[in-house]
Amino acid sequence: MSFPEEVIRKLQSAERIVVLTGAGISAESGVPTFRDAQSGLWANYKPEELATPQAFRRNPKMVWEWYMMRREMIKKVKPNPGHFALAAIEKKVPRFLLVTQNIDNLHHLAGSKNVIEIHGNIQRTKCFDEDIVVDKWELTKDVPPLCPRCGGMLRPDVVWFGEMLPPGAFERSAEAVRNSDVFFSIGTSSLVYPAASLPYEAFSKGILSIEINVEETPLTAHVDHHFRGLAGEILPQLVSATWLT
Ligand code: BV8
Fold first, then answer.
1. From the DSSP assignment, how many helices (H) and strands (E) are in the chain?
2. Any atom of ligand 1 within 6 Å of the Cβ of 231
3. What rounded mean pLDDT belongs to the chain?
C-alpha cells in the first residue's frame, strides 16, 4: 500500500502520537471481535447482554464461565504484526500513548509500554462487592469463586456496560488526544462510548486523524485518511514506509 506524502512527513516529525484500538487489531490473532457471532453456550447472547452487572447478578455462573472461556482462549493467542508495529512506532516518537478498548493484554505482550486499558484486562480478577483486585483465591465448588476477604463473588476486572471507566482513564486519554500531532483509530467500530468520543477530540482540534479498518465506520466521514484493510498488514507497511526507508 502507498501512503500520502503528507502522512509520512507528519509521522516523521510527530512529537506525540495517540492511538485508539479496538477488537479489530486482535482479530488477526484469532480473537473474535464483538461483531463476530458468539459461539457455544453463549450463542444466543449478544456481548452487550452478558457484559453487564445486571447479567452477572442474574446469572453469575454463566457470566463468570463466559469470561473464563474467553480468558483461556486469550491465553492461547499471540500478538500479530499489527500489535508489534504499534510497539515499534512507540520507539520512534518522543511521546506515544496507546488507548485500547481491548481486554486481551496483547499490546503489552507485543511490547507496548504506555498503554491505557480503558475497559480493563480479562486476566485480572476483582471482588464484585469491594471492587478491589484479588490475586489469589481458594478453589472451591463455588462458581464464581468467592472473595477471600469478604466472601463476595469474584468477577473479571473489566468495565461492563453501564459501569464507569477506571478513574482518570478517559480524562488522561482525552487530554493526550487533544495534545497529539497525529491520532489513529484502528480496528474499532466506534460504537461504544465514551471511548468512541475520543476521535472527536482530535477532529475538533484539526489534528491529523487516520483510521485503519476493513470497513467504514461512523468515523470514516470525519478522518483525514481512511486506510482500508487489515491492521496487521497496513501498520507494518506504514512503519517501513515512514521510518525504515
Ligand atoms: C459508561 C469490556 C458511564 C467487557 C467493553 C445506557 C445505560 C448505560 C450506559 C449506556 C447506555 N446507553 C449507552 C451507554 C453507554 C455504553 C455504550 O456505549 N453502549 C453502546 C452499546 C451504545 N457505554 C458504557 O456503558 C460505558 N460506560 O458509559 O459509563 C455511565 C455509567 C452508568 C450509566 C450511564 C453512563 C462502558 C462501556 C464498556 C463496555 N465494555 N468491553 C468485555 O469485553 O467483555 S466494550 C467492548 O465492546 C470493547 O471493549 C469495545 O469497546 C466494544 C467493541 O467495540 P470494538 O472494539 O470496536 O469491536 P467491534 O467488534 O465492535 O468492531 C471491530 C472493528 O474492527 C470493526 O469495525 C471491524 O470492521 C474492524 N476489524 C475487524 N478485523 C480487522 C478490523 N480492522 C482492521 N483490521 C482487521 N484485521
1. 10, 8
2. yes
3. 96
